[in-house]
Write a structure and sequence with these properties.
Blueprint: H1 2-19, E1 38-41, E2 50-51, E3 64-76, E4 83-89, E5 92-98, E6 113-125, H2 127-136, H3 141-145, E7 151-163
Parallel strand pairs: 2-3, 5-7
Antiparallel strand pairs: 1-7, 3-4, 3-6, 4-5, 6-7
């Protein structure tokens, strides 16, 4: 299972490190003291929201899909509120960034329920890339050899997020 989560965790770490240098445009909702719930970015419709755990089944012959997803926020950027990870179940997370950095979310958003609207993207990470990630993470050659199948990685660029009470 570690080999499945490793590329997602690595991507999250890289994006989190990059968010420290992100410029802040538009709404400054990520600052301490901001409302912990509400609509951030564009107003979104919650009527057609699909549970985040069903995302993998929505890609019909394409690697992108416009979607409204609901789920719990597993983690969020603690520096500026420029990303969040939505729980997909089965120890998988959907990494969500915000379109053109036009908005941020509160720094204490983790643990809240959210609905995000935007474009979801899936990417198949090849076995050799996964093995390279494992080597870079200091895994033994035995652990690296156990990686035998590619893994799908999921991301979303949201135009709006509704964080519920």
């Amino acid at each position: 299972m570690n080999r499945v989560l490793f590329p997602i965790v690595l991507l999250t770490i890289l994006i989190a490190a990059g968010c420290q240098h992100a410029s802040h445009h538009g709404q400054e909702s990520g600052k301490t003291g901001a409302l912990p719930a509400g609509n951030f970015g564009e107003s979104i419709s919650t009527e057609d929201a699909v549970p985040a755990g069903q995302l993998a089944g929505l890609f019909a012959g394409s690697d992108t899909v416009e979607v409204t997803l609901s789920g719990d926020i597993a983690a969020s950027c603690k520096h500026s509120g420029c990303w969040m990870d939505m729980d997909m179940g089965n120890k998988e997370h959907l990494h969500v960034t915000f379109q053109d950095e036009k908005f941020t979310i509160p720094l204490d958003a983790a643990g809240k329920h959210a609905i995000a609207q935007g474009v979801a993207i899936r990417q198949l990470i090849p076995v050799e890339t996964l093995r390279n990630y494992a080597r870079e993470d200091g895994k033994s050659e035995e652990e690296v050899a156990m990686i035998t199948e590619p893994v799908w990685s999921y991301e979303m660029v949201a135009t709006g997020v509704l964080i519920e009470e």
